[in-house]
Task: structure prediction
Amino acid sequence: MKEFFGIPEYTRTPEGAFSWQHITFVGSLLAVMFILGIVLGRKYRKKPMKSKNRVVIIAAILIDVVELIKLTAFGINEGSWSFLRTNLPLFLCSIQLIALPVAAFSKGRLKEAALDFVFLFGLLGAVAGTVGAIQNYNAYPVLGIHNVASGITHSIAGFASLFVGISGMAQMKKKNIPIVLAILAFFCAAAFIVNKLVDYNYMFLVRDDGTPYSIVTSLVGGNQTLYTIGVIVLFLIYLAVFYLIHHLCTRKKAK
Result:
């Protein structure tokens, strides 16, 4: 258990990103995520919203409980809570730690927009935060609190995205787009400010750190201001494409 929680530190050498251990672990998580999301989404599709919301509530509670366990372990290992400044939910995938509970427990248009937000970004964050978490799997053993907890929380977010979409909870109404954009803008602004205060790279707004955002770095020639703008533009393009595809699919289905 000490080794799993890294107390006082890991003695194992990290297996590395895209090692068979990494791929097997995240592949198993994603398989469970897809199976549960699709099966439960189809099962609850014709059930009342209240029944569907119970599933979202369970997912919201689980995602934050696992995250709190991870943060508590980090605090014990560090001997202080200063590590929190670099573990805030200000990455695109970790926003679900807040968005999912809002979707579960709020009402009205805020609930609708939060459900749409979970649907829009949950699955993307799940894949990026497991398969694409190169820096984590190069730094920590696969079966350690860092990667296990992160893998579980990202998979819960992905499950919620699939469930919300397949069960029909995500309505993707045009009138709620401004609220979805406001949620995204709030977290981008918060990430930008915190990055300046603690010299970090939330939302990868400062540099690409070897992620696919390296394409943006190349396009802007390394200019940091243009890079930040480019990343935000990518978020907006992703939203536009997602809404367009959803609109075309639902319109075709309606016919």
About this structure: Residues 29 and 87 are 22 Å apart (CA to CA). The longest helix spans residues 224-254.
